[in-house]
Amino acid sequence: MDLIADTSFLIGLWRNQPWAASYAGRNSAKSLGIPWIVVGEFKHGAVRAGHDSERVDQFLGIGVLLLDASSAVEAYAGLCARLQDTGEYRNIGQNDLWIAAVAVSLNLPLVTRNKRHFSVIEGLKLEVIG
């Protein structure tokens, strides 16, 4: 696996937005990991929008679904504690913190459009697009 997807990136791909499609085209040889929390966020949006669940599941086949949280638990605990110590904890939501923990625990870059939230995470490799 080469990259970790954030929900913002998947939404861009789903909507075939030029910034996401262009990035995907330039990185087509790289494999994409999709953390369980991103799967949940993406499917939540799809349900709210009334998208066909089979089509959504087929779309999610663009990457490797990372459905086991165990590798991210220690990273999450450390990141959360550091952010509380520095006062940055209020600048990132819990879901984004879990997504960052997955990327940090696997030492892989996170592909996102959401620089504001993720830039507070020390040690997180970011690929900000869009």
Instruction: Calculate the mean pLDDT score and round it.
Output: 94
Q: What is the tally of helical segments?
A: 7
| Strand and helix order | EHHEHHEHHEHE
Number of domains: 1
Radius of gyration: 14 Å
The CATH first-level class comes to: Alpha Beta
The shape, in one word, is globular
Instruction: Name the CATH superfamily assignment.
Output: 5'-nuclease
Layout of strands and helices, then pairs:
Blueprint: E1 3-5, H1 7-14, H2 18-26, E2 32-35, H3 36-49, H4 53-59, E3 64-66, H5 73-86, H6 94-106, E4 110-112, H7 115-118, E5 126-128
Parallel strand pairs: 1-2, 1-4, 2-3, 4-5
Helix pairs in contact: 1-2, 5-6
Summarize the structure.
The protein has helices at 7-14, 18-26, 36-49, 53-59, 73-86, 94-106, 115-118, and strands spanning 3-5, 32-35, 64-66, 110-112, 126-128. The chain has 130 residues and is an alpha/beta fold. Helix 5 (73-86) packs across helix 6 (94-106).
Model description:
The protein has 130 residues and is α/β, with parallel strands linked by helices. It has one domain (3-128): 5'-nuclease (Rossmann fold), CATH 3.40.50. The protein has helices spanning 7-14, 18-26, 36-49, 53-59, 73-86, 94-106, 115-118, and strands at residues 3-5, 32-35, 64-66, 110-112, 126-128. Strands 3-2-1-4-5 form a five-stranded parallel beta sheet. Strand 4 (110-112), helix 7 (115-118) and strand 5 form a beta-alpha-beta unit. Helix 1 (7-14) crosses helix 2 (18-26) and helix 5 (73-86) packs across helix 6 (94-106). The longest helix has 14 residues, at 36-49.
